Amino acid sequence: MSAMRESLKIDGRGVSVLALVLSLVPGCITEPDTVTDNASNVLVQVVTMRAQSADIQGLGELSDFLLSDVCFADIDHPPCTVFNDNGAVTLRAVPKDRTQVAADINDVTFTRYRVTFTRADGRNVQGVDVPYAFDGGFNVTVPVTGNEVEHGFILVRHQAKAESPLREITFNRSLILSVIAQVDFYGTDGSGRAVQVTGYVNITFADFANE
Known about the structure:
The protein has 211 residues and is mainly beta. It folds into 2 domains: 30 residues, no CATH class; 174 residues, Immunoglobulins (Immunoglobulin-like). Helices cover 8% and strands 40% of the residues. The protein has 2 helices and 10 strands; from the N terminus they run ααββββββββββ. The strands form 3 sheets. It has a 5-stranded mixed β-sheet with strand order 4-10-9-6-7, with no helix packed on it. Strands 1-5-8 form a 3-stranded antiparallel β-sheet, with no helix packed on it. The chain has a two-stranded antiparallel sheet with strand order 2-3. β9 and β10 form a beta hairpin.
């Protein structure tokens, strides 16, 4: 292989050509990119995914589904006030190989999440049929011991209720929009290997009557 390396230095392309040849020679193949190959030793599970609405009186109860009011308006709070809706996820991590002893290096730290809205009828144009997808920060470490960890996040942003298609529902109680919110959580284990887990919540958007 040393002779091959010397011969490849003849022109300025030697480095790139050498990289190509080395990748094809047995014994010179580089290790795969474990960050993108789901090579983590841990399995993260979504135990529960719940949501809660909010209004002028505060936060509602956590539920397995969300009834999201696109506009809060009554005689004391005209013309329209919007509130974000929150989500809460419970996560659990366990070793893929149950014979392994749990180690801190397999703990998973999640740093961001992405919410994407879809409809069952396949009409999923963002800003037309469904609200825009968005990313958010998420800071929680899930130990590989199997202990459950709950953490909150924003599920529906304030601005979504001021944009199409939710804006058109305001003051029109004959319109109702049902969607599925897919929430993808992204993180890494202690070795820097990527870990992703996904949860789902049903959401019904409407301009519900306010007292």
